[in-house]
Specification:
mainly beta; 8% helix; 3-stranded antiparallel sheet; 15 strands; Jelly Rolls; single chain
């Protein structure tokens, strides 16, 4: 459900907004928030990532020699996911996106809605994340 009202959004955002995502702010256009749901020591890191309306992360790639990648479980608001060379996919609560290793992609909120998803870093061998260029306003504004 789309909402630009943060107070209304917080009622939907069952995993909580968390704190400003300052550690990765350089890879986002707009403000994002991070609420870790597991401890990194568990071997499987999950976090609720919240995007203000219009916020999106840069293009990025999860590298791995085996396994790896990312899983997105959309929980509140509405957003976008796009793989390089493909059409953007509309994200709503309940949408699950599986992103294999080596796939260049980005995700974030729609212009007119707050958005949250649980991000899961899929375990693998020799895993790393490469941050690439920002999603341009031109690319983003083409989305309905």
């Amino acid at each position: 459900m789309k909402t630009t009202n943060r107070e209304e959004f917080e009622k939907q955002n069952v995993f909580g907004t968390g704190n400003a995502n300052t550690a990765f702010a350089q890879y986002f256009i707009g403000d994002s928030f991070l609420n870790p749901l597991t401890d990194t020591k568990t071997g499987l890191f999950l976090a609720n990532v919240t995007f203000e309306p219009g916020c999106r992360n840069n293009w990025h790639i999860y590298h791995a020699t085996k396994g790896g990648g990312q899983l997105l479980i959309c929980t509140a608001g509405e957003g976008w996911y796009q793989e390089e060379g493909k059409e953007a996919v509309s994200l709503v609560p309940g949408t699950v996106i599986t992103i294999p290793a080596e796939v260049k992609h980005w995700h974030g909120a729609k212009k007119d809605s707050w958005f949250s998803h649980i991000a899961v870093e899929v375990p693998g061998e020799n895993c790393s994340n490469e941050w690439c260029e920002p999603v341009t306003d031109e690319e983003y504004n083409k989305l309905a």
